[in-house]
Structure formats: C-alpha cells, structure tokens
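Still learning. Any example?
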Amino acid sequence: MSKFKERLGKLSGKKRLYALETLPGHLAESVQGERLHQLLTDFDFIEAKLDAVGVQALIEDYNLARVSDVLLSEGQTETLNLIQGAIRKSAHVLEKDKTQLGGQLLGRLLDFEVPEIQEMLEQAKQWKDSLWLRPLKANLERANEGALRTLAGHTHSVVAVAIAPDGKIAISASFDKSLKIWDTESGRELKTLTGHTGWVRRVVIAPDGKTAISASHDKTLKIWDTESGRELKTLTGHTDSVDAVAIAPDGLIAISGSWDKTLKIWDTESGRELKTLTGHTDRVSELAIAPDGKTAISASDDKTLKIWDIDSGTELRTLTGHTEPVSAIAIAPDGKTAIFASADNTLKIWDIDSDTELRTLTGHTGWIRAVAIAPDGKRVISASADKTLKIWDIYSGIELRTLTGHAYEVRALAIAPDGKAAISASMNFLKIWDLDSGSELRNFTGHTGHVLAIAIAHNKRAISASVDNTIKVWDTDNGTKLRTRTLIGDTNWARAVAISNDGKLAISALSDNTLKIWHMLSWREIKTLTDHKRVGAVALAPDGKTAISASDDKTLKIWDIDSGTELRTLTGHTDSLGAVAIAPDGKTAISASDDKTLKIWDIDSGRELRTLTGHTGWVRAVAIAPDGKTAISGSWDNTIKIWDIDSGTELRTLMGHTSFVNAVAIAPDGKRAISSSRDTLKIWDLLSGKEVASFSGDVEFECCTIAPDGVTVVAGDSLGRVHFLRLEGVSGGR
C-alpha cells in the first residue's frame, strides 16, 4: 500500500473528495515539485482520482507540472508526459469503464524502462481483488505516439467532421443517422443531434460557429443550433440523397450537391431555395466555396469539376484531368489554388484562375476520401482508403509525414483553425492528431492486416491467421513470435485456422478455396484439401483424425485428416456459415450461420439433430463447453446465448456488447467464457450470466480464445496485433 493510499484511507466523504480535487493544485502552488511528481506517479492516487472526479480532471492534473515555478527535471517531466499521454489515449475507454485503468496503463506503458513508470505498473498489477485482464505485452498504442486521443460514440461509420471556428467543438456525421457534438479539449461527447431519417452524409459549421448544416440520404438538409443542439430548419427540394454542402464565408448562403445531379443555393436565414444549378450528368459528390464567396467548385461522378458564379448561378468553366471521380475539394485561403482528391489515388493541385494543373501528389495506395488545407495555406492533409493520412507541402508537393492508427479507410478530415490539430474519422471512431508532433506509431510485431482467427494448443503454442498472407505461431507464455508462414499468392490469406490439442497439426482455410494441413514443428505443408469454396471456419476433432469446414456455400464438409478425403457434406442452412465447433467427445458438431440459426449435427451419420433459433442477427461464433452439455453462440444482434445441447433450448442471453459479437470461447473449467466484439473483449461468468471483466483495444477485436491453462487470453485485432493477456483474480490459476 502506498503512503498516499494509507493517508487517503483515513479520510472519508467530503474530506476525501476535497483532497483528491485540490492536492495536486496545492502542491503546484506551493512549489513542491518533488511531491507533485511522486503523487502523479502513484497508481493509488491515479485510481482514486479517476474514480472520484473523472478522467479529464485527472488529465489536467498533469498540466500543473508544466507550471514554470514547479521545478522538475527533464526526466521527471517526460515521465509525467508519458503517463498523461497514456491516460489521454485511454480516455474514451475510461469514461465508460474505470475498471480498465490498470489494463490500459500496462498496455501503453509496459515497455518504457523508466523506474517510476515500472514502479507504478507494479502497483497496477496488484490493484484489484476481482477478475481483470492484464496485458502481458505493451500491445496498445504507446503514450505520445500517433493520435492524441480517440472519440467513440457513434454506432455506425462516421463520414464527415467539422471543427468550429473557435476550435472548441467538433461535429461528426454518421451513417447511424445522427450527428454528435464533441468538446475537442476533453474529447467528451456534448450532444447527439437526431432528426434525419437517413444516413447523414456531410456537416459544415457556419463562420460564426452558432449554427451547423447537415446533408442526408433522406434528401434534406437541416440547420442546427450548435449550442443547444436544437433543429432550427429543414431544407427540402432535392429529389435524391444530398451528399455535399458548403457555407459561404458570410454565412448567409449555403450550397448543396445531390445524387439528383444538381446543386442548390439556399438562404440560411429563411431556409429558402434561391437557385438550382444544373450541368453535371451524374451525382454531385463534393463542393467548396471560395474564400471571397463569389465562386464555388463542384465535383461529380461524371469525372468533371465545374466552377460556378454564385450570384448568377451560371457555370463559368469545366475542369477535367482525373481518371476517376473527384471525392474531395479544398480551396486555399488565398483563393487562387484548389486541391482535388480522387478515387484514382492522387491529389491534383490546380491554379484556379488559369485552370492549370500545377502538380500531382502521389503516395496513397487507396481512394483518397478527404482533403483539407491548413489555415496558413502551406500544408495539405489527405485521408485515404489505405487507412492513412498524409501531410504534404503544398508548394513542393513533397510528402512530409504519414499518420497511421486507423484500422479501416479514413473517410473524413478537418483541420483546427489554429492549424495545430486535425480530426479524422474511420468506421465508428474519430481521432485527434497533433500536426506538429513528429512522434509516429511504432511498428508492432504482429500481422500487418486484420487477424481473423486464433487457435491455441495444449503445448502453449498459438497460431494466428491474417489477411496479410501469413500464418504465425506464438509462445503463449510471453507472446513471442516463433515463426511465420507466408502463403503462396499475393492475394491469398487465411480465413480460419484450427490446431490439434497436442500442437502437432494445424489446418487453415485459405482464400484460394483450399484447406491446408500443416506439420507444426517443421512448418511443412502435409496435404491440401479442395472442393470446398469460401470456407470461413474450420474445426479439428479432439482426436485429430477428422476436421469440419464451414463455408459461404451454406454447407459443411467432414474430412478425414490422414487421407485428405471428404467423408460427407452436411446441408440444411439457408445462408453462409461463419463458425463451427466440435464437441469434446467428437460425436457432435454445432454450426452457426447467417440464417440466424445454429444446427447440431451427428458427425458419424451427418444427420441434423436439431436447430437452435432465437438470434435476430447473423450468428458468427459458437463454442462448446468441456462437459459437452452446453454451448454458447455470438451474433451480430450484439448478444451471446447459452444453449442446452441435449434439448436445444436457450438457457440465457448475455447482453453487454454494443456491437456485433464475432468470437466466443469457453474456459477449460466451463465456468467462464470470453467474447470479442468491435467494442471490447469481455469475460463472462456462465453460471450467473454476468460480465466480470473487460478490455478495450485501440481498434476492433476480430477473434479471441482462452488457453488450456484457463487464464491466458489471446486476441487478434483489425490492425494486425495479437494481444496476450492474463485473467487475474482466478483462484487456482497458474
């Protein structure tokens, strides 16, 4: 127990809260730098402050160490910066679940060889008597690398973001039909704006920061009060989805672009339509208004750009040059230069007055979805389907930096008015970046693409399969990578993998429509099984003699491992199969399907024994308990169900995930289960049906499993990382 915890234990109620709120400030004001440093590196203080006051107040305590009168060494200051950075990166997790504090700090700071940090982490390892997941390796983004913080809250892809002129709030728009207003300093969600009945495709904020306009798939635009979140007006007139909107510098007019091939000019005060601009022959996807408010540029899927006179509504000229549709437009503050981003993976810089293409910027390997120019007009930022952002010098066209950390295509981007920060959006998450920082993400030792499957044997070996064309073998004791097998063919990857109990054999389902059996010790390919296309799951029988594959073709196939021959085909499902499990006795199997059902099969005869119904979404995960009497399933309806195998009845539904469940596994003692979802890993008590522990990563988890020791958890995520964690607080665990 630390001295702080001992002293805090003597206080109660208001005195305890007062001490937590004021002690750091008191130490800073009285120039007690050494004591302030000790306090802010004390895990007991960090935990108590988080629990009592919240994550943002805790983050702000570390700013006190930067007060000029507080004399700290350079090393002490850097230590506090690292701890603050780790807490800030974890803020979106800790806002929802304070019990993840220890796991988040370990995952981000474990490999910093700083005595004060290591001492703090040792405290963290002892912090709870209850169950929790402890990272064995630092496999989260490290403090002060990559994005500063993550904003989470949308339930569907975020496709647009705008920052207010004062830089204090940002507004995001999503396919979940909502907009969210965020505090950019704390990362806190302030309000959710609802009212659209279709995907929200764009959002812009007026120059005075008081109103915002959103464009939607429901064919309307809405004007919102940014302070109250109240809907002020709905603009109607388009006959198809509205994909683009921009506000003039004076805030008096807005222009929208639509799938109906037109642009419309609106009076923002009255909401009245002033003009309709025609000329494009396909969807108007993007538009921007020049800083002088006199002209606008629109982009269309007809692969042209048009420059318009706003006052008259006339088309001035048409620009061509991209070989694919232009997906984003930005006009420099001087109004003389425009940048166009395209699905051809390039950006082009144009001189607007002369209609001359100045240069082409290349480097992205995917469709460029967004582009923004810094307020000083010197730097350009682009966001791409290749999952990266790039910062460019606008004059030379040289790429200055690449920002990584998103696991999916980056679809939206905005730069703060001071030019120091940017916000990007990918899938459900937004990230805030420090544009002046030179600290880029380290390279992790895992895969370079989504990890789709993981399996563990009794000999402490795990095998992971990824879309990066490799299969990797790991030591589960320390998370060390032992060997890698690169698959033949540039586009070949493993969709599923299983390993025998003794760890000698593995079987993988590849995207080239084959199953391959591997000898694990020599890493030699033994056999190739064909005639089952698009296999998405595979399971090995406990005796290692048979395997079952489950496919998108709605069937399962049973294979003899020794001969490599197909024994039988099981039919009955009406949609793709995403998972299969074999009972410990090797006599029955359970399959999970996108037809929202599970089926129990007799392996010897191939006969369907019963169908389990109850899920309302695709069923993508299934596991059978060691006693063979119960099974659990995970579904895209965000739930887990426990089933009685003999009767086929549903025993219990476990709820807690906020996104679809893609993997489940049961511990060897049958008492606990683990599940993975886009939001987190969760540990469940199967007897009570209660969640007992959780762990959130930087991105979505794709798969998970529990080792035969019952306490080692291995999970793979969408950035290619393989996470090794220990379930602490388990009596009798190793």
User: Anything to note?
Assistant: The mean pLDDT is 93. The radius of gyration is 28 Å. The longest strand covers residues 480-486. The longest helix spans residues 13-29.
